[in-house]
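Course assignment 3, question 2. Fill in each field.
Student: A.L.
Task: Predict the tertiary structure for the chain below.
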Amino acid sequence: MRLWENKKGEGYIDVIALILCTVLVLALAVRVLPVYIAKLRLDTFATELMREAEITGSVGSETERRAAVLREKTGIDPQISWSAEGRIQLNEEVTVTLTLQRDIGLFGGFGSFPVTLRSQATGKSEVYWK
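Answer field:
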């Protein structure tokens, strides 16, 4: 009960510092979480695009159509580079690399921190070309 009787105000500074730190952590989370979600979407984009190349056995118009559908579904527009073009023979490896730029600007535009997200998927063709 004596703790309640002490009214010197020593705890106010501690509470204000704790609230300030909590707000800063929440602000950082709000800026970083969208980049994390973009990375997850980029990984999914790469995996699905690679699966299309594996099934069709080629890198070309089919993969471009699939990329357009994935851009619409995911809402991201990465740069796409392939290790091979055209027909891919059975069990031949192909790799797709996706690159996306995101900006983490903290606290209302103070500071600009560009982040380059990369995702890579490797697969083998499932088509035998005669």
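Instructor remarks: Helices lie at 2-5, 11-56, 61-74. The two ends are 89 Å apart (CA to CA).
Grade: pending
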